Amino acid sequence: MTNAEDRIHELVVARNAAALADHCEAKEQEYDLYVAIGRLASPLPVVATALLAAFIVQDDLSAARFLVKRTLPADRSPVFVGLATVAIQLWKRDYGGIHLALAEPALDAAVAGPAGAATTSAKIDGLLVQWVRDAVRQRALALIAKAYSSLPADRFAAMVGLAARSNGSSNGATGETVESIVAHLGWRFDTASSMIFPVAGSVAAVGGETQRGEAGMAGEAQEGMAVDMEPETGAAGGLVGHDPQRTRRGRPGLEQVGLLAEYAVRLEMK
């Protein structure tokens, strides 16, 4: 286990999204410098994957978008690609698409784990996927509790992801049902009318608070998001189309080449 993997694993187990994002952003830039000076052939894929998961958990979809744009295809793991698809659907606020993306085989395989002894990166991938799934479920439940006094059971199933896996009534993998989820929350389920009656304020939101209401969550698709999430490359193969200025969610621009060189010298002296 590398030091980077060790710290990432620790933060993922603790489910500390803010600290994970900060750590992975620092490592991302450190690896860029190592690649630039020839100390490393390519970045550690789990760093980008963990950073993307942290952004999704925090509901920071703009940061997720720029991360995907600046991550070269060769540096993307199958789990990174799967989570990028989830981010696209979250941006569109399409619950059906969100949960179908979360149920993709690559993400299911990550949670299940590989046959035999799993590498540290594989273990982290599985934990990240489950964390994202839990956060998306929690955010949906918080929205339901806040926005609905009642809703049909099939609508509830679609919003929490049961419909994506089992045609709406239960989750065969976990034994979850609409009734079991509602009972756990302490909400009322009227079987005669198939209506659910949430309790306002009974579920805490996770990550950033969405500023769009349920109408936006269901249908306010941001056309072009899928295109924007794709990396754009110039003639020399470098990424283009993102903010060249150094920001918390971006990388150093050309105006800071001198600073990069100074960092590289310091790394060489260690």
What key phrases describe this protein's structure?
elongated, 3-stranded antiparallel sheet, 7 strands, mainly alpha
Helix content: 55-70%
Give me the side-by-side strand order of the main sheet: 1-5-4
Instruction: Tally the helices.
Output: 14
Number of strands: 7
Beta content comes to 5-15%
* Uncertain regions spanning at least 5 consecutive residues: 167-172, 208-227, 231-250, 252-257
Query: Main β-sheet, in a few words?
Result: 3 strands, antiparallel
Q: Could you give the distance between the termini?
A: 21 Å
Instruction: Report the radius of gyration as a whole number of Å.
Output: 20 Å
Sheet/helix structural class: mainly alpha
Overall spatial form:
elongated
Mean of all residue-level pLDDT scores:
78
Order of helices and strands: HHHHHHHHEHHEEHEEHHEEH
Structural commentary:
With 270 residues, the protein is mainly alpha-helical. The protein has helices at 3-14, 17-36, 45-57, 61-70, 78-92, 95-102, 105-112, 120-147, 153-160, 162-166, 178-185, 214-219, 225-228, 257-269, and strands spanning 151-152, 170-171, 176-177, 188-190, 195-197, 232-233, 239-240. 59% of the residues lie in helices and 6% in strands. A three-stranded antiparallel β-sheet has the order 1-5-4. The longest helix is centred in the middle third of the chain and has 28 residues, at 120-147. Mean pLDDT is 78; it is low at 167-172, 208-227, 231-250 and 252-257.
